[in-house]
Every structure is written in C-alpha cells, then in structure tokens.
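FIELD: query
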Amino acid sequence: MLPALAATAAAAALAIGTPGPGTTLGGCPVLPRDNAFNRDISRAPVDPRSDAYVRSIGLAAHLHPDFASRTYGIPFRIVPRTQKRVPIRFTDYGDESDKGPYPIPPTAPVEGGSDRHVLVLQQGTCTLYELFGAHRDGRGWTAASGARFDLRTGRPRPKGWTSADAAGLPILPGLARPGAIAHALRVTVPRTQKAYVSPARHFASSDSDPDLPPMGLRLRLKASFDTSRFHGQALVILKALKRYGMIVADHGSPWYVTGAPDRRWHDDDLHTLNQVPGSAFEAVQSGPLTKG
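FIELD: result
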C-alpha cells in the first residue's frame, strides 16, 4: 500500500476505534470483536461538535447508573435452543419489526416502567430477540415493536428501521453487567436531532438543530478525568467509559447509563458515579450523519 493510502486507512481505523477483546454470554459472542459496540475508541479523535453535543445533553447534569441490585434496570433471559416459539402481535411499528414467532417464554422478565422491554438470548442460534412495550397475550406476546439480531454476524437493521430501541440498535450488548466490561454502554439523552450515525439505524426526532446529538453518537469519558477517588464496580465502569464509551440509544434523562439488574451489584458503590458531571465527557468522531 502506498504511504498516503496507508496513512488514510490508518486514520480511518483510528476514527472508528480498534477491535476490542469482545465478550460472550450464554456461550455466544455478543457481536463480533470489530462491531461498533466492542471497539476501543480511547484514541479516536474528538468530534468538532463535541462541546455543543455535550452542552445540549447537560454540562451540570451527572452520570447516573440506571440499574441496581434488584429490579431496577433492563432484565434479560437466556433460553435454550429448544425454547418454544410463540406468536408476537405488533401494535405500533409492525412495518419495521421482525415478524414472529419468537422463542420468548411466558415467564420472561419485563422491564418495569413505561418502556416494558423484554430481552431474550437464544443459545445455540445466538439470536437475540427484543421487544418494546411488551405485554403477555394468551400464548404469546403483544408489543409495540420487536427485533431480532444475529450476535455472530452483527448484521444491522435495515436503514431507517427502529428496533426495541429508538436508535434501531440492540439493547443487550450495551447493558452494564457485573464483572469486566469490554464494550460500549447504552446511554439516554433528553433530545436528539433528526439524524443518526452508524451503528444506529433510526432517528426519533423532528428537530434539525445540528447541536443536538444524533442517535448512535459515541461519547467518551475524558482521559484527563481523575478516577482516583472511585473504586470497585464504579471504577470498572469509569474505565470502560474511557476505553469503550457510550452510545446514544434513546431519549430519557441525561447521562443515564443502562444496565441489567443483578444481585452482584453493590448499590452504594454504583451511587458514587453520580459524582461524574456531564462536562467530563466528550463526543468522538463516529462517522457521517444520515439525516431525515
């Protein structure tokens, strides 16, 4: 390769990050190592609009773990390959949903609150099934929208399609879970612009303000942020936010990072994350915008 071309290729690779070690769950890879969720973006260049994006999310607002040791967070269930498939009836976004049946048992946990997400990972096929606005309905489920993802290939949604998340992304790969974190985390922001950036596939706004973050934007804890006063699980999360960052996936409270409820979480430890202000974050170059 010619030196100029090699330099261009290296710059492009740096802009989107480098493949991380990847992670597994239920005997399945949680997306390929080079998938956006698994890329190390610690050296990726800062986006020219970083200051505006962060300001719109909230400089004085603080990081918040939207999960805890009990029922707070987005739960998921791992089911065997033999799990019976049941019918799914879509009520709102059926034209952008993957048709059923899905292998979702009647006992699958449902997220509390209004979003009512249901996440199920099927072993063997390594297919992830996710519902939004889910309710049990006879032998199956009713949901506002639904999507399935092949975690081996990481194939994205069709352009313009939603999923169980506003950005058209899978939810499970971005959930914080106890232990090592080698992937980006899912984050919500109050407002977004009418645009998305890969790996997102969908926008959920009619606002054309370019200073608002697009769906799919990658945010990173600044390398200069002092983490010496943090420890335990909070420190693990902060190190992950410096290396893998967060992906804007939905509307909600500013800087709310999503995780799965798990009794192994130490709630008092997690609460120290509330000391991290929005001003400690920056947006990295994530790629070209797709506008509506």
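FIELD: remark
The helical segments are 3-16, 50-57, 232-243, 267-271.
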